């Protein structure tokens, strides 16, 4: 037989039960016991789904009330001292409220403290809590939660495989804080606790433990490679079988290392890196199990089971029962169950597979490879083949006009008419802006009224006319407030937009939206990424009437507001039948037409947001340039239709710029606004060695905080910026959009910001 398993299953529940329970607990509406009961119920249901599908093991350890990396941090007792007396934690459990305080700064019990940093897990949109590491730190087993969950699964009669973040990847994901030190120096202290955990799991009757080590698909320093060897050598005596799980890419130069680790099994990603299958098998020691991640854990398309069966037949021949089958990575990254999508058309549904469906795919493929395929399996293969045939030939996929237009593009379409200095002169004349012009990033508070109106509109209670009238009122209100504040370049405030990707996706052909396709983003937060099914076409202008209306209300320049092509791509499930780059170009073309229409409607400045540009970077540095080349080209394709006098802005909200500063300059936006206030303008260090040529607005107002920044603080930040960048090229603006804030904070903060700009003008006049 061929064993089938998953690296992890979504924990949020088909109806986001976990989100609801956790948030109710935070609000004090349900008690701890009720929350734990929901957790138990969800685990029970998810294990049962795995058994019903026919998996050989259920996976325990993928459940978390907040984050699975935080679970391991708690298991290791690695709680920063600000969350309570370390002695206390040393004696007892890291309780749930301590975990919640680490994640969000506060919980129903315990003293509030600054939350731990959160960041994206590898190249996914899932955020984990960054382990805070300290030189000389000590670790000890500090949570029994995992063992309780194992006991639960055992009681239910399931064969258990435990999944845990491995010791090297846990350290790799950690950060040293202010005092940088070698994180690897902690390995020796971490390993005995892992040893203890594994021994205890063995005593509970667990046969296999999967240790997630996706760090192995990245560029590792030599010391880390050596540490992998020594760490797994140290763990080889534990009385349980270990499977090292790698995913999100190929092992590359770590292949020999990964294959040779003294453990009983290795999991590889054969979706992102199908070519590594043969070399891995060629080098696999004869005692080792190879779990092949053949079903895509990062996307929503139905698998081509017949083709996979054929492709994996020789692996099966060579490995026999040492071949296992699984999705490429944890199913955490896809929606839960396609069956819930009653509003998607049947044809489209037949092309898709969510987590629950991927269980069936995995089992069928495993049974076929193990020569145990039954009628149900043969039926599934036939159905998949038929659906894929329909999909490949479907007129929904291809629009001849799109392909023709892309093919006919020349380099000229990627460049503005004139270089920045010439454009800047025209723009200064057209826009008549003062030194240190002030602006905002686009959105203004999404008030309860705005959200209520949208809900009523969506449910049909509110007609389109009435809804749009309310949105116009919100825009007029935002314009009036900006004029009163004395801002120089205005925005319409994005009242009419639910989400910066969804809003555009809903208006573009080629995108589809699910009703329940939620994926966990962090903690209780879920996102519902659109699915790009076919060639992208813009049937009509998307934002022009709103921007035109806003501009009609004021003499000051109004900035049009678009989400850029890379961000649209990055935050969607992307079609798998053509390169990402091609899909991105199609989106860029659609947006280019929007830029042209906004310009024709008299909008003098257009912002193209690309907050996701950086997160699209491949996990291997060798692939960065290739990505950046096409990502930059797509942005330029969108923007370059602007005439010299039309000012193109872009916005990005993160502070790790140094790596990609050249690419950012290559976007050739006239103005870029970026996040800097929290890092105290540290970001501008990147501008020390690299002379950024265009205008820049380093954010001076941290919109993630309810605090109102004072004038002196903002002046001081801008003075820092002025040490690096000529004042003629500086803008004054917040870090990001203001939609999550209330007007009561935004107005005083922006009043101070405008005052700061006035003071700066006087100083630099
Ligand atoms: N224009 C968007 C806003 O202001 C930008 C959002 C973002 O950068 N994530 O909300
Ligand atoms: Zn932002």
Q: Can you give keywords for this protein?
A:
alpha/beta; single chain; binds glutamine
How would you sum up this structure, described in words?
The termini are far apart. The radius of gyration is 27 Å and the shape is globular. The strands form 5 sheets. An 8-stranded parallel beta sheet has the order 1-10-9-8-7-6-5-2. β7, α10 (255-260) and β8 (265-269) form a beta-alpha-beta unit. α1 packs antiparallel against α2. The longest helix has 22 residues, at 32-53. It is built from 28 helices and 20 strands. It is α/β, with parallel strands linked by helices. Bound molecules: glutamine (GLN) and zinc ion. Glutamine is lined by residues 441-443, 494, 500, 561, 609, 611, 651, 653, 736-737, 739.
Helix count equals 28
Rounded average pLDDT: 95
Strand content: 5-15%
Radius of gyration using CA atoms only = 27 Å
Helix percentage range? 40-55%
Shape: globular
End-to-end CA span:
79 Å
Unique bound compounds:
glutamine, zinc ion
According to DSSP, the number of beta strands is 20
Strand order of the largest sheet: 1-10-9-8-7-6-5-2
Instruction: Characterize the main sheet.
Output: 8 strands, parallel
Low-confidence stretches: none
The structural class is: alpha/beta
């Amino acid at each position: 037989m061929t064993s089938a398993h998953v690296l992890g299953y979504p924990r949020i529940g088909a109806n986001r039960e976990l989100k609801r329970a956790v948030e109710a607990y935070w609000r004090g509406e349900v008690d701890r016991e009720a929350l734990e009961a929901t957790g138990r119920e969800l685990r029970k249901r998810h294990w049962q789904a795995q058994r019903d599908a026919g998996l050989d093991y259920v996976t325990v350890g993928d459940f978390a009330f907040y984050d699975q990396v935080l679970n391991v941090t708690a298991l290791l007792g690695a709680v920063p001292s600000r969350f309570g007396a370390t002695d206390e934690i040393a004696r007892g459990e890291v309780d749930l409220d301590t975990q919640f305080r680490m994640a969000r700064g506060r919980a129903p019990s315990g003293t509030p403290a600054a939350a731990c940093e959160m960041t994206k897990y590898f190249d996914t949109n899932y955020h984990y809590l960054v382990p805070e590491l300290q030189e000389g730190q000590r670790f000890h087993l500090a949570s029994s939660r995992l063992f309780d969950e194992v006991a639960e699964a055992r009681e239910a009669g399931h064969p258990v495989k435990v999944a845990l973040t491995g010791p090297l990847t846990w350290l790799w994901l950690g950060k040293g804080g202010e005092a940088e030190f070698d994180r690897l120096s902690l390995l020796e202290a971490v390993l005995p606790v892992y040893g203890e955990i594994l021994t205890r799991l063995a005593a509970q009757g667990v046969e296999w433990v999967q240790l997630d080590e996706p760090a192995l698909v990245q560029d590792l320093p030599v010391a880390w490679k050596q540490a992998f060897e020594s760490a797994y050598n140290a763990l080889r005596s534990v009385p349980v079988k270990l499977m090292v799980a790698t995913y999100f890419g190929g092992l590359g130069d770590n292949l020999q290392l990964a294959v040779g680790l003294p453990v009983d099994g290795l999991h590889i990603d054969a979706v992102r890196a199908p070519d590594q299958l043969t070399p891995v098998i060629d080098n696999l020691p004869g005692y080792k199990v190879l779990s092949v991640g053949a079903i895509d854990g990062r996307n929503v398309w139905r698998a081509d089971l017949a083709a996979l069966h054929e492709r994996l037949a020789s692996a099966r021949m060579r490995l026999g029962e040492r071949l296992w089958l699984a999705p490429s990575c944890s199913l955490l990254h896809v929606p839960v169950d396609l069956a819930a999508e009653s509003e998607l058309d049947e044809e489209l549904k037949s092309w898709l597979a969510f987590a629950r469906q991927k269980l069936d795919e995995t089992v069928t493929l495993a049974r076929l490879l193990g020569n145990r395929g039954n009628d149900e399996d043969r039926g599934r293969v036939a159905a998949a083949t038929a659906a894929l045939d329909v999909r490949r030939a479907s007129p929904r996929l291809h629009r001849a006009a799109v392909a023709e237009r892309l093919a006919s593009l020349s380099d000229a379409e990627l460049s503005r008419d004139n270089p920045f200095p010439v454009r800047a002169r025209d723009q200064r004349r057209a826009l008549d802006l003062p030194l240190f012009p002030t602006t905002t990033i686009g959105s203004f508070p999404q008030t309860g009224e705005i959200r209520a109106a949208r809900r009523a509109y969506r449910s049909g209670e509110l007609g389109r006319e009435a809804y749009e009238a309310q949105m116009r009122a919100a825009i007029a209100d935002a314009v009036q407030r900006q004029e009163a504040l004395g801002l120089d370049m205005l925005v319409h405030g994005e009242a009419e937009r639910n989400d910066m990707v969804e809003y555009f996706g809903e208006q573009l052909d080629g995108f589809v939206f699910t009703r329940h396709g939620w994926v966990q983003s962090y903690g209780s937060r879920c996102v519902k990424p659109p699915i790009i099914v076919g060639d992208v076409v813009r049937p009509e202008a998307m934002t022009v009437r709103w921007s035109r209306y806003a501009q009609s209300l004021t003499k000051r320049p109004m900035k049009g507001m678009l989400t850029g092509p890379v961000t649209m791509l990055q935050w969607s499930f992307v079609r798998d039948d053509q390169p990402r780059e091609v899909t991105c170009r199609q989106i860029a073309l659609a947006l280019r037409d929007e830029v042209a229409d906004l310009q024709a409607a008299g909008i003098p400045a257009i912002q193209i947001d690309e907050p996701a540009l950086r997160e699209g970077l491949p996990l291997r540095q060798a692939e960065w340039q290739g990505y950046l080349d096409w990502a930059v080209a797509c942005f330029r394709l969108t923007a370059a239709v602007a005439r010299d006098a039309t000012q193109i802005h872009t916005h990005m909200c993160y502070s790790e710029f140094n790596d990609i500063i050249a690419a950012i300059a290559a976007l050739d936006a006239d103005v870029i606004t970026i996040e800097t206030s929290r890092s105290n303008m540290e970001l501008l260090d990147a501008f020390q060695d690299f002379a950024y040529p265009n205008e820049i607005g380093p954010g001076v107002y941290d919109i993630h905080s309810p605090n109102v920044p004072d004038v002196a603080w903002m002046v001081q930040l801008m003075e820092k910026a002025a040490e690096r960048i000529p004042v003629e090229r500086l803008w004054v603006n917040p870090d990001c959009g203001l939609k999550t804030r209330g007007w009561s904070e935004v107005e005083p903060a922006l009043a101070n910001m405008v005052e700061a700009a006035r003071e700066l003008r006087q100083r630099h006049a």
